Automatic annotation (TrEMBL):
CDD domains (alphabetical): TIM
Oligomeric and partner information: Homodimer.
Location (main, coarse): cytoplasm
Name of the featured protein: Triosephosphate isomerase
Location of the protein in the cell: Cytoplasm
Length: 261
């Protein structure tokens, strides 16, 4: 079992200066937490300056978005090849990209492939909507989004990606999924990856939970078997709350390591 992976998705919040200040404060609050990999997904404007800053602070960076072609006449876009070396991760298929910006499976699998091609680990976000949930279609939604997102990469590449299970109805709403349901969804994700890409891919792929995670509920998710970390939106904008969650993840990692020894 690897380190817990905790990703802050700041969305369209924080200026470059505020993001930089956040990094200083976070470093003061968490110091070196060896059991946790901390990843910050800032506004695209802050990627370059934070890249220089985080090298001293043991944090990694994620792009919130990028275009799937490497270069060309695509006004306003930033490619994975331009982000190469600046970020370690790239969010793909986030529900806001799917539902606000109309990204389809075709775009999402091209982005996953572009990230892999450029040495960036894709974080494929999947999850059912409220109506899919009400209609008992959670398993189908997960299945379709996995196939739709991963169709262009190999089983070996799937081993190295991250899947974030984020029920759409839980994102930014304050409604969070019951740990029992998250556990069921995460098992389903690994089962479906096993069927599609084999046992090794299912074993090694990292699976995160995201959706209204806060200081009070984080530990419950982090302790679910098969959950490798968290993708956090709103709460990650509060440096103290985010640091608290990192400390909890570190404690859980140490407890697991002690049990395994
Ligand atoms: C997210 O943006 O991926 C997310 C999970 O947001 P929130 O934590 O605010 O629900």
């Amino acid at each position: 079992m690897g380190k817990k992976l905790i990703i802050a998705n700041w969305k369209m919040n924080l200026t470059v200066n505020e993001a930089s200040l956040f990094v200083h404060r976070l470093d003061d609050l968490v110091g070196k937490r060896r059991g946790v990999e901390i990843v910050l997904a800032p506004t695209m404007l802050a990627v370059q300056p934070l890249h220089l800053q985080v090298q001293h602070h043991h944090f990694n960076l994620a792009a919130q978005n990028f275009y799937w072609r490497d270069h060309g006449a695509y006004t306003g876009e930033v490619s994975a090849s331009q982000l190469r070396g600046l970020v370690q991760y790239g969010l793909v298929g986030h529900s806001e990209r799917r539902h606000v910006f109309g990204e389809r499976s075709k775009d999402i699998r091209s982005k996953v492939q572009a990230a892999v091609r450029n040495g960036i680990t894709p974080v494929l976000c999947i999850g059912e909507t409220a109506s899919e949930r009400a209609d008992g279609e959670t398993a189908d939604a997960i299945h379709d989004q996995l196939i739709g997102g991963l169709a262009n990469i190999t089983s070996v590449e799937v081993e190295h990606i991250v899947v974030a299970y984020e029920p759409v109805w839980a994102i930014g709403t304050g409604k969070f999924a019951a740990p029992r349901d998250v556990s069921r969804a995460v098992k389903l994700i690994r089962k479906q990856i096993k069927q599609l890409f084999g046992a090794l891919a299912a074993k090694h792929v990292r699976v995160l939970y995201g959706g209204s995670v806060n200081v009070d509920n984080a530990s419950a998710y982090l302790q679910i078997d098969g959950v490798d970390g968290l993708l956090i939106g709103d709460t990650s904008l509060d440096v103290r709350a985010f640091a608290e969650i990192i400390k909890k993840a570190d404690v859980i990692d140490k407890a697991v390591a002690r049990k395994a020894a």
